Amino acid sequence: MHKDSFDLEFSLSQFLNKIADKKLVSRQRLEEIESHLRDEIDDLQSHHELPEAFNIACTRFGSSEDILSQYETIFKNRRLAQLKNFLSYYFDGRFVMRILTGVILGLGFIFGGMAIEGGNAHSVMRLTPFLITVGGALAGLIIAYPTQHVFRSFAIAMTGKPASRAEYIDASRVFKSFGDFAVLSGLVGVIVGIMHVTRNLVNPEQIGPGVYVGLVCIFYTVMLKLFVCNPMHDSFVSKAYPSRESREVAPVHAKS
Amino acid sequence: MTLSKDLIAATAEPLVLSILSRKESYGYALIKDVFALSANKVQWTEGMLYPVLHRLEEQGFIKSVWKESDTGRRRKYYQIEYKGRTRLTEQLDQWDLAHKMILGGRDGAHA
Questions:
Q1: Could B51 and A62 be called an inter-chain contact, meaning their C-beta atoms sit closer than 8 Å?
Q2: Which of B49, B40, B36, B45 is nearest to A59 (CA)?
Q3: For residue B75, which phi and psi values (nearest 5 degrees)?
Q4: Rounded to a whole number, what is the largest CA-CA distance in chain B?
Q5: Distant-in-sequence, close-in-space partners of A207: CB < 8 Å, separation ≥ 6
Q6: What is the pLDDT of residue A237?
Q7: B47: which chain A residues are within 8 Å (Cβ-Cβ)?
């Protein structure tokens, strides 16, 4: 009989295999195509013989090349969208990631520049100036704001967890002050260094190291303000007062 | 009369959403529904429908669930999401406006 010479399962799997050969279509989508074809063949069989129904269904669905080109565009778009999502998540979603990237890049350029000039990283790795600058600024913060406030701001900055608008505003203030205090305490470092020098003017060997500590203080101050305080302040401000565009973009990574 | 290629493409998304807003459905049934809704004038092709479905799903307007039909065949059913309903309302308003504009232009009415 005519019907026996046609093997639906075999023909169907051949058709599907052609699509599956390219790795563009996931198994789930392939299964969807298969169930679609089977539905259509069932319906067509009320008017047509099985082989004919199969051919009509496949023609209607489009040649395997057509389907592939369709999926190819979806696939490409999806890859692009994934990349875009990742980038926007990376750069908008996580402060800590952004800070790391920024700090590493910034330090890389600065120390790279110093290396070219013949200096070395060791020359600025001094504990005293660091303590004076960062310690002084932190002390200023503790005096200026409730301690809880300070901790919360640093927590938001480190984890990048979404916070309320009021919290963003508070955090932006904290980091603004942090930067200002860092400048002042850096200045204290310079003054201490110069005081040290003036007391020992008779001893020329002490002049160099004294001025040097002061300069390194300024170095830490500028680094702190440049890489931490100002960027954090700015990004908290933009979180608290989002511009029109960023408000529209925001839901992208707010997936449930 | 049938729809131009541009209009078929433009109506695809709101049509899928409007059909799904009433009941969940699967690809093959959607094509049949559209055929019936258009009084047998608009025949969608699969090559057009599935990309639309998958795009809507990726955008979160609809979601899909694998289910077993009465005949025991596994089918991928699509269901509308809350976000999709909002989208449908927006699009209905837009089509309504477009429709009014065209009629208003001809009849000289002011919107």
A1: no
A2: B45
A3: -130, 150
A4: 57
A5: A197, A200, A201
A6: 84
A7: 61-62, 66-67, 70
Q: Say yes or no: ipTM exceeds 0.95.
A: no
What are the structure tokens assigned to A112, written together? Answer: 């790279």
Closest-CA distance, A81 to chain B, in angstroms, reads: 10
The length of chain B is 111
Q: Which residue of B has its CA nearest to A79?
A: B58
What is the mean pLDDT of each successive set of 10 residues along chain B, which is 111 residues long? 83 93 91 90 82 87 86 86 93 93 84 49
Cβ proximity of B56 and B16 under 8 Å: yes
Question: Which residues of chain A lie closer than 8 angstroms to B50, CB-CB?
Answer: 29, 32-33, 70
Confirm if B56 and B83 have CB atoms less than 8 A apart: no
Distance CA B23, CA B8 (A): 22
Domains of chain B (ranges; CATH) run: 5-107 (1.10.10.10)
Question: For an interface test with A, which of B25, B28, B75 has the most A Cβ atoms less than 10 Å from its Cβ?
Answer: B28
A67 touches chain B (CB under 8 A): yes
Q: Nearest-5° angle of CA A205, CA A209, CA A215? A: 145
Q: What pLDDT score does B87 carry?
A: 93
A80 lies within 8 A of chain B by CB? no
Q: Starting at the edge strand that comes first in sequence, how are the strands of the sheet with B25-26 ordered?
A: B25-26, B74-80, B62-68
Does the CA dihedral A201-A203-A208-A210 come out positive or negative?
A: negative
Decide if A31 and B76 are in contact by the 8 Å CB cutoff.
yes
Burial of B47 (0-12, 13-18, 19+ CB in 10 A): middle
Q: Give the type of residue at A10.
A: F
In 3D space, the residue among A183, A175, A131, A179 whose CA is nearest the CA of residue A149 turns out to be A175
Of the spans A2-6, A27-31, A213-217, B93-97, which averages the highest pLDDT?
A: B93-97
